[in-house]
Specification:
Helix content: 25-40%
Order of helices and strands: HEHEEHEHEEHHHEEEHHEEEEEEEEEE
Number of helices: 9
Radius of gyration: 22 Å
Structural class: alpha+beta
Distance between the termini: 47 Å
Length: 362
């Protein structure tokens, strides 16, 4: 952990030198986790910023937090590369005065500029967050494995009499039990499945089939995956939709290589939908994009010309009415690694990859 943080502090200081700024200030939960090698400043799961922030100058590195949080962060979250600057919880002005002091009159670079003294992050730092080190990928593999095992456990035990709330709650419980934050648990049962792509859970009984979606966060990294359960045999028309969406996804995965642009992958998906006869499907839901310290770092669209690179993660989620597929992959020069595929889940081979199919129960 300390070695990884040291490398990242060096990258930050290169950015400070390049821009002539006096300090770098990182407030977001994503950037805090990146800078601290998986540490968490999260208390409120829904918040984009947390109870601490990172401040780095050419000579020093601090975590800024208040008296409420400091000891727990020291004990449980922070590598030893950082000093901890503690301020009274009711005196945020003291924190701001400290930032101005260490910046020595220069601008402060930040992921969330808050005033005229702060400026945004340069592109090279954004890229460093999205292209992962070997130690980050090892943590990511743990998150993906735990998330996929939680998904298998929950849907294997699900009952058609459960409500969508119960299924979402079981998903959240299984993630928490593995130390993961359930930042998103979408559920659609039999009636709502054909109606909504982003189906937040309701009190309705799920009935004959259901979709469960996870965005599970561990060490600040997001494992994104979608699975289906069917109580009884899958109907012929539903089986075709799932087969078609697997074929559509395969086109994008085959194209997902270092040097390709996100908008080019989007175009491949658009063409794949049309070849399968679903001309408007590309417009009915976003298709995913790069992932990592955010559930989606960049969502692909016709204008996103960001370039894919080795050690970058992606999560595509092509969908049709009542069918969807999603896993989290890492791109390498010689192919893709699926971080969220549980071999205990039913699967078929598509273009040389094992891909999930709906779990048929009973």
């Amino acid at each position: 952990m300390n070695e990884e943080v040291s490398s990242k502090l060096e990258l930050i200081r290169q950015a400070l030198k390049e821009t002539g700024t006096g300090a770098l200030r990182l407030r977001g939960t994503d950037w805090f986790a990146w800078a601290t090698a998986g540490g968490s400043n999260t208390v409120l799961l829904a918040a984009e910023t947390g109870i601490a922030e990172v401040l780095v100058t050419a000579e020093n590195a601090w975590v800024l937090t208040d008296e409420i949080e400091a000891q727990r962060l020291k004990d449980e979250e922070l590598p030893t590369n950082f000093e901890v600057y503690i301020y009274p919880w009711a005196d945020a002005a003291k924190r701001e005065a400290f930032v101005r002091e260490v910046a020595q009159g220069k601008k402060v670079m930040s992921d969330r500029p808050a005033n005229s003294e702060e400026t945004g992050l340069i592109a090279s730092l954004q890229n460093h967050k999205r292209v992962m080190m070997a130690s980050e990928l090892e943590r990511y593999r743990q998150v993906g494995r735990k998330a996929s095992e939680a998904m298998t456990e929950v849907l294997s035990n699900a009952k058609p009499t459960w409500t969508e709330y119960q299924l979402a709650g079981a998903g959240a419980e299984a993630l928490w039990a593995r130390g993961l934050h359930p930042t998103l648990t979408l559920v659609a049962g039999e009636r709502r499945l054909p109606l909504y792509r982003h189906a937040t859970a309701t009190k309705e009984v799920i009935g004959r089939e259901a979709m469960l979606v996870f965005c599970a966060r561990g060490y600040g990294l997001y494992a994104n995956l979608t699975r289906f359960v069917c109580f009884g045999s899958l109907k012929t028309e539903a089986a075709k939709l799932h087969r078609d969406v697997r074929e559509i996804e395969a086109k994008a995965l085959n194209f997902c290589q270092p040097g390709k642009s996100l908008n080019a992958v989007y175009d491949v998906l658009k063409d794949a939908y049309e070849q399968q006869g679903y001309v408007n499907a590309i417009r009915e839901h976003h298709q995913g994009g790069t992932t990592g310290y955010l559930s989606r770092e960049v969502v692909a669209n016709p204008e996103t010309n960001d370039t894919l690179q080795s050690n970058m993660a992606v999560a595509w989620n092509p969908s049709l009415t009542g069918a969807k597929i999603e896993d989290t992959f890492v791109i390498f020069n010689d192919g893709l690694e699926n971080l969220t595929f549980d071999p205990n889940w039913p699967n078929v081979e598509v273009d040389g990859r094992l891909r999930p199919v709906p779990l048929e129960v009973g």
